[in-house]
Amino acid sequence: LWVPVLVGAGALIYLLLTREPPAWAGWAAAGAGGVLMLLAGRLGPAPAAVGLLLAGFALAVLRAETAGTPVLQVPIRNVEVTGRVIETIGHPDGRARLLIEVAAIEGIAREATPRRVRIAMRKADRRLAPGTAIAVRATLTTLPLPVAPGAYDFARAAWFDGIGAYGFATGAPRPVAADAPGAMARAAIWISRVRDDASRRIHDTLPGATGAIAAALTVGDRSQIPEKDDEAMRDSSLAHVLSISGLHMTIIGMGVFAALRFAIALMPWLVLRIDARKWAATAAIVLAGGYLALSGASVPAQRSFLMIALVFLAILADRAPYTLRIVAIAALVILVIAPESVADPSFQMSFAAVTALIAVYQWVQEAEARRGAPFILRDSLRGRILYVVASALLASVVAGLATAPFAAFHFNRVAVYGVIANMAAMPVITFVIMPFAGLTLLALPFGAEAPFLAVMGWGIDAMLWIAHETADWPGASGRVPTPPDYALGLTTLGGLWLCLTRGHRRAVGLVPILLAFASPLTMAAPDVLIDRD
Asked: What integer pLDDT is reported at residue 420 of this predicted model?
């Protein structure tokens, strides 16, 4: 269970360096880490721990060597950018942003040309579908650096995505001839076009904020959500619903699994000849993978797909599906593919929530086993209703407490009434919004999505009402100063210790958490912050 923690810590060491290490340092760390892990059998776990730290460091260094892009060093005005549109992102005010795979930039040598640029346009143009080769005159600027010391590093995130410059169009784009893209690029372009088409059809059926949130929940397009609704969702602690993650993947995957098992059970001649659970699990993995691709495959969605896929693989292998090992494997896979994710707020918050939820679920099971009886008997309708309500309340409290330190650190806010808002909205999300989102995705290829979108829209309107009502209560959103880096590190270490250890040793995890709470006493806030410009 500690393997991804140590690998992630090694990657974080690289990200905290103030100077870039040479590539040979990554290879040296990889070799030394491998030797130490091989010696662990003789020398105990300490060499293995150091080896995993070095492995994480090596993964981050080598990822940086292979994933980066030339970066624009100074702004340049009114130059021609030629390339292929990868993604088009609209805005509620009609503007658009193009992500362009660059072929050439006027006046810049090929070896210094960024691999991708993001260009803002005054007006969205539906002719600029993903895959379109264009030339556009634009003013390009350097990547935006953190707005304050220790703040979120937009430049680092963009650089790992292959983006080397931002800019805005100074003229209308025009189509140009270009070589045919490769097989992988064609697949990515096809998925982008399907997402764009689905988003457009959803907006045509459900206008305004309702359609914008429906598009966010189905194809991951959050660009059209009005600022006032986005703010209300944040202040009510319902913003997590807009990011496709465990909640959505679980409802889609488990919904397909349950529906197929039910359908097979209705056919006695079939259910006697096949294992319905395994056939349903296989189909659920395939459809969850399709949902991942359509949603844009963000880090929370990748993590959720990996976890739901591992749950269904455990069912196929007749193993227990709900364990912390599944969380550990999912985290390790993401860290191997993209070790820079360890510094991403979505990675931190999604894994914090799911780790805490499964740990508490296991603690409750252990306590019930020692007690010899469940805490809530479910042998009556009243007992079952009480169990569902208590489970939802516990899940909201646990997930809220687990993610609160990261929300305070990255976003300087804490949603005071988050548990109440989540308790009120979760039945609507679980039983109306997400099931009909799944049905909408299944109906889109046949042009039959309108009735399912209508029902989904009713649920979204109800969720928005809950969000606005809760956000309007006095003191709904508490603003907090950014704690020092070490405070978040101590809180994370303490939380992991509480979740990953057993017995009385768990109490040791409270020590670093209490030390983190005392960190404001050591803070000296600056009197003045002077911008670099």
From this structure: 84
Q: Burial level of 17, CB count in 10 A (0-12/13-18/19+)?
A: exposed
The whole-angstrom separation of Cα 33 and Cα 52 is 6
Question: What distance in Å separates the CA atoms of residue 352 and residue 346, rounded to the nearest whole number?
Answer: 10
What DSSP character marks residue 433?
A: I
CA atoms within 13 A on the CB side of 472: 8
Please state which of the ranges 67-81, 281-295, 456-470, 504-518 shows the lowest mean pLDDT: 281-295
> pLDDT for 180-195, tens place per residue?
777 777 777 777 788 8
d(CA 309, CA 49): 28
Residues recorded for the chain: 533
Output the CA–CA distances (angstroms, integers) from residue 431 to 85, 218, 247, 367, in the order listed: 38, 16, 12, 30
Alpha carbons 159 and 67: distance in angstroms, whole number? 8
Report the C-alpha gap between 261 and 424 in whole angstroms: 30
Cβ neighbours of residue 171 closer than 8 Å, sequence gap 6 or more: 136, 137, 138
Phi, psi of 95 (to 5 degrees): -75, 170
DSSP characters over 110-158? GGGS-SEEEEEESS--TT--TT-EEEEEEEEEPPPPPSSTTS--HHHHH
Q: pLDDT tens-digit profile of 416-441?
A: 788 788 888 888 887 888 888 888 88
Distances (CA, A) of 279 to 276, 304, 310: 5, 21, 15
Phi, psi of 86 (to 5 degrees): -100, -40
Burial state string for 182-198 with b = 16 or more CB within 10 A and e = fewer than 16: eeeeeebbebbebbbeb
The helices-and-strands tally (H runs, E runs) of the chain is 19, 8
User: In 3-state terms, what secondary structure has residue 167?
Assistant: strand
The secondary structure element, H or E, covering residue 477 is: strand 477-479
Q: Has residue 93 got a pLDDT over 70?
A: no
Question: How high does pLDDT run on average in the chain?
Answer: 85
Measured from the Cβ of residue 502, the count of other Cβ atoms closer than 10 Å reads 9
Helix ranges restricted to H, 296-433: 299-316, 324-337, 345-371, 381-411, 418-428
Q: Which token pair is 235? A: 């202040």
User: CB of 97 within 8 A of CB of 63?
Assistant: no
What is the value of pTM for the model shown? 0.82
Contact between 236 and 467 under an 8 Å Cβ cutoff? The reply is yes
Contact criterion met (CB below 8 Å) for 111 and 139:
no
Phi (first) and psi of residue 479, to 5 degrees: -95, 135
The CA distance from 311 to 321, in Å, is: 5
Residue 259 confidence (pLDDT) above 90 = no
Enumerate long-range contacts of 38-47, CB under 8 Å, 24 or more apart. none
What is the Cα–Cα distance from 421 to 210, expressed in whole angstroms?
Answer: 18
